[in-house]
Protein 1
Amino acid sequence: MIGLLILGVYVAVFVVSFLAVRFLVHRTVRDYTSLKTVTFGDESAVTSNRIASVVSVLTIFLIWGSFTGSAWVPGFLHAPAPFIGDTSFTYTLESEDGERDDATVHVRVFGFGETTQKFEVDPGDGIARNDAVAMSASRSTTILFDKNDETTRKKGARVVSIDGVAIGPDRAIRTPAGRFALTDKGAITFTPPSGLQMEPIWLPPPEAVVGRLFEIADEGYRDSTLWKHLGYSLFRVIAGFILGALLGIPLGYAMGLSNWFRGWFEPLVEFMRPVPPLALIPLVIIWFGIGETGKIILLFLASLWIMAIAARAGVSGVNITKVHAAYSLGASKFQIMRHVIMPNSLPEIFTGARVAMGVCWGTVVAAELVAASEGAGMMIMVASKFQLTDIVLMGIILIGVIGFAIDILMSKAENLLVPWKGRS
Amino acid sequence: MSTLSIENISMRFDLPNGTHVQALQDVSLELNTGELMSVLGPSGCGKTTLLNIVAGFLAPTEGRIILNGHDVKGPDAERGMVFQQGALFEWMNVRENVSFGPRMKGQRERQWGEHVDHLLDVTGLGDFTDKAIYELSGGMQQRVALARCLANDPDVILMDEPLGALDALTREKMQGLVLKLWKETGKTIILITHSVEEAILLGERLLVMAPRPGRIHKEYNLPFADMGVGADLREVKHADGYADTREEILEMIWDMEEEIMGRTEDTQ
């Protein structure tokens, strides 16, 4: 239900901001694209709307903050919070012989993360006595109201109404204090308004996640600082990728240049290519244990085939007229390799490297989830076992940010080193 | 003095279905140093195959090519090649492309620098030496291809429709450049083209080839290339005999094309 509500809010923000931007923000830039009359179906006329991107990211954080009661989101934007504080209700008890008496139950609801503390109230008089109940927010509690009463459920006493509203075993009721029902044995089940906010154990507010980031950056988690965890993951990826590239690229070249090499390695490459690296994790753990060797070998295997296939594609992508021209200009085989085939295959190799880095980053996190003593994946795995959702979220966000940064760096390097890509 | 002789070249491609294609049948011709021969013919007459054999990229099934007294066995720097397009190295700038041949021979810049810079000037690339290939227009790129070929100082230059991908105006300018370079360097050139006008304007000798099997149909000796050196090519087109030659060759090629069409219809 709450999921549907969040989706509804999200769609509403999408539509409202779209309409607002469409009718309120006027483009002042009159570039060439703005003069095109046919834009639907012209992919080149579709650019990413900056306002939409900013609103999109803000909306995510807004919904996150709003449904977690974040201190960073102004109070009027919060989703209804669960009831916290003191409340009370009056129940009417009817004894076996028809005598009725009212008693008040004082309920103290403690917020998320607070420890409930028992307290005392004046019991009053009559056959029903006042009770004091302590409970946590967003929970139900079963109130054994008759512990201090003169007559008890065992003797045939039963609750007939709460705050003046009739209640029965088949009749749950709702009053301003909350929801009431009777259990099979006649005890009162009380649920104060739980609101629409998520409990931090499911979804902590953004400031908790950021707080964790600083805390773990400062003090570390599981004997390693945050930077050490991330550094281990990055080191494994880079080491595995470099080894994979060092072997995979020459292998791909050999497969692109020699019948024998292609015949020899094609079955291997074609077989290993569709095997997801994740499926190798158990075997790698059996063979090499959970230490660095196993992880680096796993990432080496993950990048090896990708780089080999990219290098082979790079060789087969060489326009034969370039090779002919180089031969006619007197180049030797080695010179053609060095000055024609290798530079010509660089765009393909960079594409492969970007894919391989992405796959390696995903694989290293997965491998650390399974077994590791340091690393980003290990951090979130251990945190999840202790239900430290804020660390889990922080880890996921950092993993995403680093993966994104790797891709951006690779694309920058590509633009710098292969400026002719796609322009020949 | 004969430098390049093509002796009884035949080329037969066996197809997987058991039939074969006779791309060239018994082609013989001699080319003297400094001659510019253009080769014309309908598609499928084997002119590109012939050029690839002379360049050494293909071995003929029969016959041999002799250049300066030795057999042609494979590609070599003595036979330079200018392709239609796509043969430049995008990862090098203009000057690096043009100096590729000398650099591959292990020469130092002081050995090739002057020659390369001269060629860059002659081809009108003087202001573009540091530009990347993909920044140049199609015509400029073909200038680089010409200069790169000349920088290697080959004995024979083989041109496979070098101006085929250019627009009409650029093409006319480039035809003038080819003539100029030919006279200046005195190279032996074989030029394959689809354009009858280009073949007549540039070819001192003009070879018309016929298809199925690919063979030499007729050879012309033409005066227009000499006229064109240092003159306006458009004026040459008004010279005596130009229009007649053009009509004659066009008709010849039309007849061949119709024959091909007719044959295809017969077999259907």
Protein 2
Amino acid sequence: MAEATPSHPGESLRDAGRSRRPPSAATAPPILAAHEVHRTYRFGQIEVPVLRGASIAIGRGEWVAILGQSGSGKSTLMHLLGGLDRPDAGRGTIEFDGRAVNLGAGRSLDRYRNRDVGFVFQFYHLLPELSVLENACLPGLVGGWFGHARAAAARRRAGELLEQAGLSHRLRHRPAELSGGERQRVAIARALVNGPRVLLADEPTGNLDATTGASILDLIAAQHAEGLTVAMVTHDSSVAARAQRVVHLRDGQVVDG
Amino acid sequence: MYAALLSNRYLTSRVIPLIAVGAVALCVALVIIVVSVMSGFLDMLKASGRTLIGDVIVSSGIGGIPHYDEWLADLRALPEVEEATPVIDTLGLLRMPYPSGPSKEIAPVQVWAIEPASFARVTAYGEKVWWRPPADDAAREAMLPDDPRLRMDGSILRDGLTLTQGATGKPGIVMGMHVSVGNARQSDGSYRPRFGWFMPGEEVTLTVVPVSESGTISEPRDATFPIVNEVFSGVYDVDKSRVFIPLAQAQQLLRLDAAPLYDTTAEPDAEGNLPLLGTTPARVTKVLIRAKPGVDALAARDAVEASWDAFVAKAARRSDRLGRPPERVSILTWEQQLRDLIGPVEKEREMMRILFSIIYIVCAGLILSIFWSIVIEKTRDIGILRSVGASRLGILWIFLRYGLAIGVVGSLAGVGIAWVVVDNINLIHEAIGRDAPRAAWITTCALSVLSVVMALRSLVWRGRLLPGLLWTIATVTLGIITLALLGHRGTLIWDPSVYYFSRIPSQVDWFNAAITVGGGIVFSVIGAAIPAAKAADVDPVEALRYG
């Protein structure tokens, strides 16, 4: 079923949420899928196979937790799903909305990362020289040479998201002046500023205490409730329990889900 | 847009880029200062040549140019010629009016015998006569209260312009400002009499040696002239050695005036007189020509050459055989005349430009190393930017733009530094030429003591090594500066006797400055390009994982 997707900053989060909401995650075709992907890292003469034919399908509007031990390949799978990395040549594909994203040119992958998915990392990964507002609207500034109107829309959208995240009083602060939880909220606002259809969260609470981690999961849950598809990597089963579906990864392969 | 935001933020939030900006600024300033001074020197050489000798210079051998007044009339009739003036150029010895007592100082001089009126129309002689009352109230205001010119009336200028002592009607002499040691130059460029030896009004004796057309040297002859004024051309060689006397007196002294010619091979008549063959015409050794406005010096020279050929042909048709002009004379433009001087300076300027441009490579290397460390430090940021969709070209552009910004800011700062230095170069030079002021070394000494205290505070009380080291370096540097200031007894860098002019050229060569700024920007971008390419090649996953 064709879906109206918010792909422009400036559209309000709640409006975007309504348009994203699918009728049923279980019956909908996957929006993001990995098919038999392999990824091997090479360190000189040494080859380290991390993913060995992992497959996963994430339905529209679904919240999937990818659970696994350290070194099981969770983050690598997340990087492949997000277009930050590619599978080994000829060994697996990543599909977004029915098209293979890993086979395109570099520019199409850049665009995919900029528009279609949003990343949240364990260590927040905010740029220290930029303010909270500038960090949050960064994806809106990327991707165009003639972007004054686009930048203004991104700032407006980032402001709205930060307000929803309870950070409207922190817009001009630098990341170093924020707590861990506040930084992660900024990272979530940044991930959502371009209205992506999928949020990829890599251990989003892994660096936070339990209370703060819960508040971050609440924020993600609120976005999911508005129709956002979420793929979350974690090694914490209590965190994974917040997802609709849990996928286990072991030795580079999905063992269930 | 994000490239602009990030490169601006990287530039303003860190100290290292400021070091790069400083390095570019110093490199650019250094090149501009050196090239500007040399270009200014060259321009002054050319300008002085033109204002002191006219556009075209005709020089003959020792025999001189006879019937020169006829040729001058021909020259003045040429459409290319504004004015022409005769000159005798010879060497002489000048017996100065000092010191007191019978033994006087003797100065070797270059004597230019001139017709002052036409000479002033060909050259800027009229403007170069120094002792004169201020032209207007503004000029009067600009002079210091003890300037002797404030107490002068117009007669001294008139005497200088006519080479005649008005009070006595005697032919006078005008000397270059530095021929006499009695003139002391002040920091504002004006002169005061030294030891009370004010030259105008004094008398000097000029001795010259007549040389016949055939090269026979006669007995030296001398004449006494009242000094009617002095001339300051700004060209040290001229001001140190040249004197001006009236043409008629020089012709008499040098036996270049019109004179009867007797047949020395014949027997004397009953009264003992030899047969008169005729009258040899008066002669001069140079003719200086001013071209009409808008006429190129080369075109004027061609016209003068054609006129000379016609003059020689006309002389050949004369019935008398006396006073035949030489067939060959040297006819040169002012630039050709000064080629021996200008050519080496031009080559030297280009050599300096090339040598100093090597600094750019150092500059590019510095930026490269600074950027390399920044890229390594910013690897994680690059991964973050890639994760939000920044392309490799976008990352490349951030760092190229960063380098461009450093190049532009550094180069413009360099132009500013160069402008301040060049504009005040004579003041700076004069300050270096004096003993260091007491306040300067007391200040640096006090700062040095303060640095010692700060170094001890950092190292001993607070246990901080880096600030302690920086304060120690400051202490040593300030100590060395204090010792240098204490030992400084004035250094003459720009010696007028070596560099021809008494003042250092102080005009920025804006054309060369623009080229230098362009070079600074280009080499800054080149220095940034390699780290920028490395940044673009950063693997985002590796960057996020290990950055």
